[in-house]
Specification:
The structure holds 2 protein chains of 2 kinds. Chain A has helices at 2-16, 23-48, 56-73, 78-100, 106-125, 144-167, 169-179, 181-186, 191-217, 222-225, 228-241, 248-262, 267-284, 288-309; strands at residues 135-136, 219-220. By secondary structure, chain A is an all-alpha fold. Chain A has one domain. In chain A, helix 11 (228-241) packs across helix 12. The longest helix of chain A is centred in the middle third of the chain and has 27 residues, at 191-217. Chain A is globular and about 60 Å long. Chain B is of the alpha/beta class. Chain B has 21 helices and 20 strands. Classes of the chains: A mainly alpha, B alpha/beta. The interface between A and B is medium-sized, with 20 and 30 residues.
Chain lengths: 310, 507
């Protein structure tokens, strides 16, 4: 809880003193917050409830399309459009849940991957959404500062939701479903409801992030908004940071974005290095960097107490 | 579902015509049970009889194919597991399934918060503490379930089920894998839980638990209820002993058997030949559960050795340790004088050890012939053809169906295929693990006839078998395992008449 406040506070400082930040810093800040939101949502799904999804792109995309559609056809304020975009994601999650929840473990993962691809193909081929060229947003470009503020609000909401979810009684039910779904049912947990609730909350957050991204881009097309890259990036961030840990996604997102910016001139190198980090972490520190830090702390604590005894 | 008389009030669980089929296999066949309130009721039966399936059907983990389940007089056949749990049916698993990455206290909070999310924190803490105390886990509240030993995991599962304040508890093989002193602790715990408030259904292989806890038991055999009655009567029953010790004892089945097996014992011949396999104090296990506790065994070329013992005694683990699918934690294995302890299983196969695994393990996407050929890779074509012809000679049924997928066969044919496949590597020693499991007696006769032929041809074999009579018939020597040790061993003919054999099985 404290850590989440600190992180949100750091970003809030940027909002209070905009003149401290260059336009470039402001944009990086927005992107970092967006990725933290996506990572947190994915961590809620996979780390807490065991629903390892490769379908993040479907929800990023649906949020983007809902926002553009709403802003182009109605005079809706942007904040509300982001919320409704998030709602679109939650509705999509509820609609597909009877199908994807029939699958477990790796099958669920593959099923959600297929969902993302199916959504992209539908957007390309259906006649109503601009096809492969996509849609343009007919409202003014937002300033970097305005985007930053929207991102900050979404981040604060996300941190609040996650802190509540991680410390509530619900989190115990979610983790029970993650550890053993059948055994959870056998002690009275209505597993479908728990999974559905988690899936809808996570999808809401992902779609809201997608909506903000669409607002930033002002032009969306299916290959970008429903691209597999979203799903993979989010997964990589959370695994690097530490899956199932409260601060895993935050550190993962910051690290991945920082790495991307440092190596912006060498995109191939960036992807390769991210890949190597991922392999090394999965092999040697399956709980990610945050997990590694926790282990190191426990080790030092153990050593000092051992010394005290001697 | 089924019609008939209204369910009686005094019953906590009643099943009527309960049936479960998997594809063509009937795991539970038309079982009627009536379990009175406040009773500790035992369900026993040999391996593969369908006992765990029955627990799944009552607990709601499995939907029945037909028939119904009543709980306190209400039909609950259509209710999901979670709803049954909320009404007061708790269960534990044969292999404990606590929520491994959560603490002990959190494990107990799961049922509590799922049923009563608004319970006050103080009340919740009191309930958790009371149940931890009751199950002997006090002080372990903050430990992660993953770090618990097997017995404590079982206690945790029980504590977790108790959080539901269950009116009936289904305990699936709680005694499996525990040593004698742990079994005693468990019996005490069961006594302390049972009462008017809580009825208990115990599905169990450890006969001591059944004897000391249950007033009445039912015997399940090949999916159907075979006998029911007072515990002492049932355990003393000849017929029940028969299904535990082997089909060959059964009336009517004996005639089919005669003249098929019973070759002259060749102990004398074997004793003079070289030692093929030597186990030197091997130990092995899974995680914290130690299954083999130091086994010494010598098998000479040409010998057939039967490995007997109840479920959970360590027979299959022994087979896996010999073939290399389970790593040893101690001891050594020598084969033809060479130390093979650290060799991976495919290298052991090259040395001449074949393993016909429990449950057949047929490759379902390969045809019958491909299943056979896969065990003879790297052999030249003429030799491969010769071996294939030999298998088809042994099992003509496989030749007829050689192009069918390996799993589109009857159970008996699949077992033939599994045996044939393990023979394709032309082994010097072959380990047969439960080849008669779930097969009709007439098919077993056929398989054992083939084994007799192979034995006469000089193949050395270890035969792991639930069907004691059959294994003893074919073997020169027999070893009976108990808790991962050899409790009894000697010439097969002597073991057969040894009274301790029956004791090891039925207590």
């Amino acid at each position: 809880m404290l850590g989440a406040l600190v992180i949100a506070g750091v970003f809030a400082v940027g909002a209070l003193f905009p003149h401290l930040l260059s336009d470039y810093a402001m944009q990086i800040g927005f992107r970092t917050m967006l990725y933290i939101v996506l990572g947190e949502a994915w961590n809620l799904l996979a780390g807490y409830c065991g629903l390892v999804s490769l379908g993040s792109a479907s929800f990023v995309g649906i949020g983007a399309y809902v926002l553009v559609g709403l802003l182009n056809t109605t005079p809706m304020p942007i904040g509300l459009a982001v919320v409704v975009g998030g709602g679109g994601g939650a509705v999509l999650a509820a609609l597909v849940s009877p199908a994807v929840f029939r699958m477990r473990g790796l099958y669920f993962t593959v099923g959600t991957l297929a969902l993302g691809e199916a959504m992209r193909l539908m957007m390309v081929n259906a006649p109503w959404f601009g096809g492969a060229t996509g849609l343009f947003l007919h409202v003014d470009w937002p300033s970097s500062y305005a985007l930053y503020l929207y991102g900050l609000v979404l981040l604060l909401v996300t941190e609040f939701v996650l802190s509540v979810a991680a410390h509530s009684r619900l989190s115990i039910l979610m983790r029970a479903v993650r550890d053993d779904e059948d055994a959870a049912a056998q002690v009275g947990v209505r597993t479908f409801r728990v999974k559905l609730f988690t899936f809808m909350v996570a999808s809401f957050l992902m779609s809201a992030a997608g909506a903000l991204q669409a607002y930033k881009l002002s032009a969306i097309e299916p290959y970008g908004m429903f691209g597999l890259q979203w799903s993979v990036d989010v997964l990589a961030m959370v695994i690097i940071g530490g899956m199932g840990l409260r601060y895993g996604p935050i550190f993962g997102a910051i690290l991945v974005i920082a790495l991307g910016e440092l190596l912006a001139d060498y995109p191939e190198l960036h992807i390769a290095i991210t890949g190597i980090i991922l392999i090394v972490l999965v092999r040697f520190a399956p709980k990610g960097l945050v997990g590694l830090a926790g282990q190191a702390r426990a080790w030092f604590a153990g050593r000092s107490s051992g010394a005290g005894l001697a | 579902m089924s019609t008939g008389k209204p369910p009686a009030d005094n019953l906590i669980i009643e099943t009527r015509g309960l049936t479960k089929r998997y594809g063509g296999v009937t795991a539970i066949d038309n079982v009627d049970l009536a379990i009175p309130r406040g009773e500790v009721f035992g369900i026993i039966g040999p391996n593969g009889a369908g006992k765990s399936t029955l627990v799944g059907l009552i607990g709601g983990a499995l939907p029945p194919s037909s028939g119904s389940v009543f709980y306190e007089g209400a039909d609950i056949t259509l209710l999901l597991a979670a709803e049954r749990a909320r009404r007061g049916i708790g269960r534990t698993y044969q292999i404990p399934r606590p929520f491994l990455d959560m603490t002990v206290a959190e494990n107990l909070q799961v049922p509590l918060y799922s049923v009563n999310p608004l319970i006050s924190r103080r009340h919740a803490e009191e309930m958790v503490e009371a149940n931890l105390l009751r199950t002997g886990l006090a002080g372990a509240a903050k430990q992660t379930a993953r770090n618990l030993t097997l017995l404590r995991r079982k206690r945790l599962e029980l504590a977790r089920a108790l959080m539901l304040k269950p009116r009936v508890l289904l305990l699936d093989e709680v005694g499996a894998g525990l040593v004698e002193s742990e079994v005693s602790e468990l019996i005490e715990l069961i006594h302390s839980i049972s009462g008017d408030e809580t009825s208990i259904v115990i599905v169990e292989h450890v006969i001591r638990i059944v004897r000391e806890c249950c007033r009445r038991v039912a015997v399940i055999h090949v999916g159907a209820k075979f006998a029911e009655g007072r515990t002492d009567d049932v355990l003393a029953d000849k017929e029940v002993a028969t299904i535990y010790l082997g089909t060959a004892h059964g009336e009517g089945k004996a005639e089919v058997r005669h003249g098929t097996v019973q070759t002259e014992s060749s102990v004398a011949k074997a004793a003079s030949s070289e030692v093929l396999l030597r186990l030197e104090g091997i130990t092995a296990g899974y995680g914290q559960a130690r299954v083999l506790n130091g086994i010494d065994l010598e098998v000479r070329a040409g010998e057939a050795v039967a490995i007997l013992g109840t479920n959970g005694a360590g027979k299959t683990t022994l087979a896996n340790a010999i073939s290399g699918t389970v790593a040893l934690t101690g001891g050594a294995i020598r084969f033809m004088g060479n130390d093979v302890t650290t060799l991976p299983s495919h290298m052991r196969m090259k040395c001449g050890i074949a393993h016909c695994m429990e449950g057949r393990r047929i490759f379902s996407t390969l045809s019958v012939e491909e299943n056979l050929l896969i065990a003879a890779r790297g052999v030249d074509a003429a030799e491969r053809r010769r071996r294939l012809d030999r298998m088809y000679g042994l099992f003509p049924a496989l030749h007829e169906r050689r192009d069918n997928p390996g799993t589109a066969l009857s159970g008996g044919q699949q077992q033939m295929l599994a045996i044939g496949r393990s023979l394709m590597s032309d082994p010097k020693l072959i380990v047969f693990d439960e080849i008669s499991l779930g097969l009709a007696p007439i098919v077993m006769d056929l398989l054992y006839k083939t084994l007799t032929e192979l034995r006469s041809a000089g193949l050395t074999m270890l035969i792991i078998e639930q069907d004691v009579e059959r294994a003893i018939d074919i073997a020169d020597r027999a070893c009976v395992l108990e808790h991962g040790r050899i409790a009894l061993s000697g010439a097969a003919s002597l073991i057969r008449s040894d009274t301790r054999l029956r004791q090891l099985y039925l207590g």
